[in-house]
Specification:
Keywords: Signal. This is Lipoprotein. The protein is an alpha+beta fold. Helices cover about 20% and strands about 45% of the residues. The chain contains two helices and seven strands, in the order ααβββββββ. The strands form two sheets. A four-stranded antiparallel sheet has the order 1-2-3-6, with no helix packed on it. Strands 5-4-7 form a three-stranded antiparallel sheet, with no helix packed on it. α1 (about 1-15) packs antiparallel against α2 (about 35-40). The longest helix is centred in the N-terminal third of the chain and has 16 residues, at about 1-15.
Length: about 130
């Protein structure tokens, strides 16, 4: 996984090295210094899953000290009356859940912050409340 992320960031750095003025249609990300991208990426892990009823992708980053942030998205794939969400266990501060994504097709973005490593980052389902 680390090798894949390193390859992705190497490609991003190479692409950013050829940045053009913003007036040439380059997005805001082209203004980020390549070294900053690599520095931000080295203390991060990626989590994700996809199945018949939902999918999620999240990035867990250590922000210095014991503070950890998990941010990403979760999407509902099934019209089953249930919602999907991401559950995260932080080693020192306990568990946190994202908002629920439902009905089918709904995708939400989330940010969860805790202390200690994120020991469990999983997608779960819960019955939608009427």
């Amino acid at each position: 996984m680390r090798k894949e992320l390193t390859a992705i960031f190497s490609i991003a750095v190479a692409a950013l090295s050829f940045s053009q003025p913003a007036s040439a249609g380059i997005s805001e990300i082209a203004r980020i210094e390549p070294g900053a991208v690599l520095a931000a990426a080295k203390d991060c892990d990626t989590h994700g899953d996809k199945n018949d009823w939902g999918s999620f992708m999240a990035r867990e980053c250590k922000a210095g000290g014991k503070k950890v942030t998990v941010n990403g998205w979760v999407k509902d794939h099934d019209a089953d009356g249930q919602c999907v969400y991401v559950h995260t266990e932080f080693a020192e501060s306990g568990s946190q859940d994202s908002d629920w994504a439902c009905p089918k097709g709904k995708k939400i973005h989330f940010t969860l912050t805790g202390r200690g490593d994120a020991t469990d980052v999983t997608m779960r389902k819960i019955h939608a409340q009427d």
